[in-house]
Amino acid sequence: MIEPVLFMTCGAALYGGMHHLYQGAKNPGGYPHVLHAVLFLLLAGFALSDTSRSLVHSAEELSLYSKLSVSLGLLLFATLPWFIILILKQRASVLPALVSFAWGALLLINIASPYSLLFRQVTETRAVLASGQPSIAFTTAANPIWHLVEIAMLGTLVYAMYLCARQFRTHGKSVPAIPLAGLLLLFGTTAYDSLVYAGLVHTAYLAPLGFLLFLASAGLCWRPATEPGTRQTSSDTNHYQLTMNFNDSPAERREVPVDIPAEAEVSATQLTRQPIVQPAIDEPPATPPLHINNPMVDRVSDGLVDIAVDASLMLKRLDEGEIDTMELKELGRKLRKQAIETRRVTHRMLRTERFGQKD
């Protein structure tokens, strides 16, 4: 029964790995998909080598496939904290590096062990059945170090769940809830496998299936790729044609292309709740061009640039989840002040040029 389940897990993991490799190669900056694909491929290799352990014909082959499957499992758990940090867009700290270092030490111990970290000793027994067919059986003794590996697995999962819970409690976003649910499922299957290894439960191991479901649910955290005809991503650049020379006539004005990042696109309702109401002015059909003095134009231009930069900074911080309430309030007050000042200077400039009023 265990072989079909592991083979299906291997096939599904291979498909997930190829899919995320394709997504990572297609999209610029697709390294999250590449790491996701690496985890899928490690899981596929683990399931395949674990299945091969039941098809061996000697103690040497059993030791070889046991080392291979345990090594791939250790690499899975060593990469897990970094994968969670990448999903949550958090900054790396010293603790994940220490966790990976501990898993690396266990990996070296597994490679140096004669029968891997799973077994302390393996005895091979050969016999001939009544039908004349040869039979082989293995008697194994549990390795005490494996209990340390199980504790390390559960500890790594607890740390990953702590990262998700802290992010969810601090920012209240729905993204941490998705990997948190998958980690809870993986924690349950890993704890269940500890009971199977101890001989308290006599069923198949469920951790590979739990890891597959966790990786599949984590795929919901990535944003869909931008399709043709949809809105540009934040990495794209919008091109606007802005008239820069206000003193020339309309026929002589040059249109100069200016590149403005799409992150700086903020509507007026996002900057201030007070709409800008222009006074109704009856103008003749042919209005002469305005001759606006340069100092006022510079003040308006500087104010608009400051508003776009601060709004972009606010949106970036909110998207990364690295902003607290006080910093958000400070940026909001600064944006409101800049918007009001720009509006005041604009009205003053219009009154000065159209009606000759001097402040």
Topology:
Layout: H1 2-26, H2 31-52, H3 59-88, H4 94-112, E1 119-128, E2 134-142, H5 145-171, H6 177-197, H7 207-218, E3 237-243, E4 255-261, H8 268-271, H9 294-320, H10 325-355
Antiparallel strand pairs: 1-2, 3-4
Helix pairs in contact: 1-2, 1-7, 2-3, 2-7, 3-4, 3-5, 5-6, 6-7, 9-10
In short:
The chain crosses the membrane at residues 6-22, 29-48, 68-88, 95-113, 145-165, 177-198, 204-222. Keywords: Membrane, Transmembrane, Transmembrane helix. The chain is mostly helical and 359 residues long.
Question: What features would you describe in this structure?
Answer:
This protein is mainly alpha-helical and 359 residues long. The chain starts with a helix and ends with a helix. Helix 1 (2-26) runs parallel beside helix 7 (207-218), helix 2 (31-52) runs antiparallel to helix 7 and helix 6 (177-197) runs antiparallel to helix 7 (207-218). The strands form 2 sheets. The chain has a two-stranded antiparallel ribbon. Strands 3-4 form a two-stranded antiparallel sheet. The chain has 2 domains: 2-221, Rhopdopsin 7-helix transmembrane proteins; 238-355, no CATH class. It has helices at 2-26, 31-52, 59-88, 94-112, 145-171, 177-197, 207-218, 268-271, 294-320, 325-355; strands spanning 119-128, 134-142, 237-243, 255-261. A hairpin with a 5-residue loop joins strand 1 (119-128) and strand 2. The longest helix is centred in the last third of the chain and has 31 residues, at 325-355. The chain is built from 10 helices and 4 strands. The chain crosses the membrane at residues 6-22, 29-48, 68-88, 95-113, 145-165, 177-198, 204-222.
